[in-house]
Each structure stands twice: as structure tokens, then as C-alpha cells.
Amino acid sequence: MNELPSAIAGPVRRVVPLVPIEAAANQNDGRLYAAHQKIYPRRIEGIFSNWRWALVFATQLVFYGLPWLQWNGRQAVLFELAERRFYILGLVLYPQDLIYLTGLLVISALSLFLFTAVAGRLWCGYACPQTVYSEIFLWIEEKIEGPRTARMRLDAGSFTLEKLVKKWFKHLVWIGLAMWTGYTFVGFFTPIRELGTDFLRTQMGSWEVFWVFFYGFATYGNAGFMREQVCKYMCPYARFQSAMFDRDTLIVSYDAGRGEPRGVHTRKDDAKALGLGDCIDCSLCVQVCPTGIDIRNGLQYECIGCGLCVDACDTVMDRMQLSRGLIRYATQNGIDGGWNARQVFRRVFRPRVLVYGALLVTLATVLLASLVVRAPLKVDVVRDRATLTRVVEGGQVENVYRLQLMNATERVQHYRIETHGLAGLHVAQDGEGRASADVEVAAAQARWVVLRVRAPRGTAAAGSHPVFFDIAAADGSARLSEKATFIVPL
Ligand code: SF4
Ligand code: SF4
Fold first, then answer.
1. Which terminus of the chain, N or C, has less C-beta within 10 A?
2. Quick one: which of 203, 213, 207 has its CA closest to 189?
3. CB 314 near ligand 1, within 6 Å
4. 237: number of CA atoms within 13 Å, CB side?
5. How far is the CA of 293 from the centre of ligand 2 (A)?
6. Is residue 216 in contact with ligand 2, taking CB distance under 6 Å?
7. What helix, strand, coil percent values describe the chain, rounded to 5?
8. Which residues pair with 481 in a beta bridge?
9. How confident is the model at residue 401 (pLDDT cuts 50, 70, 90)?
10. Coil, strand or helix at 307
11. For 122-143, what is each residue's pLDDT tens digit?
12. Distance in angstroms (rounded) separating the CA atoms of residues 461 and 458
């Protein structure tokens, strides 16, 4: 069990709030703005704390582990910017597949709307990288500098060798973790196994090295120093989330009807006789809060919905032998109407939730279906503007085209390219007139080919004419037709 205020660690008695640092944060000594006061969150155990840690492990396992996963001899998930190719397990995507990324972003936004409407800031409290890294950095700080009171004493105390060693060691571990985070992040955009060699060869100046340091120091700064200030002042989501809330959204709420009037009292006291509610004013809910707010003042935009104050208050209620839930996840309607869990649950399926849910399911189905039926071949056709349309031997009109064939399979592919659209239109390769051209493209690679296409003069009037390139894979896995323009000179 981690440290608890003496009031609830032993017999329940009057609690003197430990150091009133949160209160000090609101005092600005006559200045126009309040200086930032460092928050020292107290560690607490409980259901929601366990959920937070489970999410920390799950997200970090995926983040740090995924770039090292191999698939068919290559990195399983790689957004290879230099080659303009994206690998997601068995999928090979090209910039032309941007529509899938757009679809994914729309689905993510809709999911956020849906989860926010149902359960408030679930994302912020449990899975947002800012929350997750702040939690990890705080854990390191606690392991090195000690629990809340020890950390506060250390910071308030004079400079000693012990303080120097602890601070130095903490920052060393923080920087190490932050740099590894930066390295991993860049490893999603460039092959991670080669990135290490780049570093060893100190290819300083490459964009990869810049971004490793940039992302690393952003992590160090945001999780080590800025912490709750990112949520309070920098994150736009905190500002517009209230527009997605309604009276049936689950939020962390203090049951004022049950807790007030708050006042210090012990387990043996008769609170009713003293005219007091269930809140013993121990301030534990404030001390565990990573954003340093007092949820008893009502819903505040600083609240990230992490539920740690719920765990804290439940611990106090257990010690007081009172029922849990003085602070709990509840809806405004539920609190006002004294609803039980079943009544609250019934209101989950309300119109806005159903609309978000239906849109989400439809979009996800469409995206999945289009991925399944998508042709594993992309083709770009551009008429070579550097080469003028000309009349060649035999009175043939020749146009030159550049075709980019993008093989989105993990096998070597042979493609046959045919043209049609004008009488006598054909491909002229290597000086020979052929009806078609055959091209080999390596597995998951793109290849440019230059094609000279000819048509007998006189088959079409001067001007531009639509023609078509039909490209078919020899194994029958893909067949595409791309439109182009054929110019006939005067
Ligand atoms: S709400 Fe709970 S944790 Fe907070 S001060 Fe009251 S009794 Fe303590
Ligand atoms: S008030 Fe409670 S739920 Fe909100 S941020 Fe603080 S500890 Fe988390």
C-alpha cells in the first residue's frame, strides 16, 4: 500500500492536509497572473489506477514493440516516407491510397465523439500519450526521489549532495527514456534496424537524427516538466469537449448531496448529529489529482477523467465504513435524480450516441470492404511533355508516355500493357511495333517505364484524343485501365 494521510492510514481522525501546495497554486500575491506551482500527485491504488496502468502497458507494448515486428522479411509496420510506401502487416499502400488514411482519420474522430458522448474524457484519462508518458515519468520520479512528501521536502530543501545525485539520476533516466521514445517514433517512418547503424555512423544532419532528438526532447519536456499544463493550456480538445457532453455523459462527479456539508470527523462520530455529510474533508482526492484540482468544486475543464480521485475517496469511505461512490463516474441526470447504475445505463443509447455509432459502423464497414476488394496495383500515366509529338518512319504519329507501375503485392509481378482508343494504336518498344508491352516489377516496389505509342497518320483528325492503357497482371490478380491523351499534330 502506498502512503496515505495519517488520518486514513490509522484510525480515522482529523486530517491535516499535508502541504497545501495546491491551494498555494491559486494565490498570485497581487500579480496579474498566478505563477505555476509544481503538482506532486500522491500515488493511489484502486480499480481506476489499475486500469490506467493496464493502458500504459498495452499502449507502450504496441508503441515500442511494433516497429521491431517483421513480416515477410521486412518491417511489419512502416510508413516509409523516403520511398513513399506504407506497410501495414500484409498491406502495401502508396500515396494514391491516401483515401484510406483519410477514412481512418474520420473513423478516429467519430470514435472520439462517440466515446466522449458516452463516457467523457476516457481518451485523456487513460490513453492519451501525454497522460501515459506523464504517468511513466512520474513513476520514475517517485522511484528515485520517493513518495509525495519526500519529493516535496527534497524540492523545498537546500542543495545537498543527496539532492544533486537524485536529481541528476532522475534526469538521466528521463532523457534516456525520452530518446528511446524519439528513436522508436522515427522507427515508424524509416527502417528501425538501419536507424541504429545511421546513429553509430553518426550521420548527423540526416532528418532521422533531427526528429529523434526533436521528439525525444518534446517527450522529456512535456512529460517531465509541462505535464498537466499541456492538458490545461495547450490541448484544444479540453476546450471543445464540453460541446460533446450532455447531461447523460459519464463524468467524474462528487455527490454533493451526500458529501456536504463537509467537515472533519472520525469514524466514531455521528456525522448526522454533527450536521455533517460523508466528506471528511481529508483532501486525499485533491492530493492524488494529476491536474491538482478539487473535484468537489464541480466539473472543471482541467479534469481529465482519470478516476484517481474516485480510487482515493473509495479508500477513505472503506476506512470510514461508509458505502463507496461519494466521488464516482456518474451522469448529471443520474446524480440529480439519484439514479442507480441500471437507470444510468439505459440512457447510454440516446439519439446522438446512436447516430455516432451508426456512422462509425457504416464507415468502418465501407473502409474494410474497399480494402478487401482493392486492386493490388496502382498506375500513374503521364504524357512525356519533354518529348514532342512527332511523325516517325512509316507515317506513324508517336506520343511518349511515362507509366509508374506500383506493385502492392509481396510477389514479383509481370504486367502486360495494351493500348486502345484509336484505330491502329500500338506500343512501339525497342524500335518494334507491338500490340503490347510486358513489364516486370519487383515485390512491393514501384517502377517507371517509358512507352512510345504510335498510330497511323490519318486515322484521327489533328488535336487531342482520349486513349486507354490496359494493364493486367499475368497471374490475374489485378487489371486496370488508365485514361490518357494522344495528340495528333496538324
Ligand atoms: S471527497 Fe472523499 S477524498 Fe475528497 S476530501 Fe471528501 S472524503 Fe476525502
Ligand atoms: S478530478 Fe479526479 S478524475 Fe479529474 S483529473 Fe483530478 S483525479 Fe482525475
1. C
2. 207
3. no
4. 17
5. 7
6. no
7. 45, 20, 35
8. 470
9. very high
10. coil
11. 899 999 999 999 999 999 999 9
12. 7
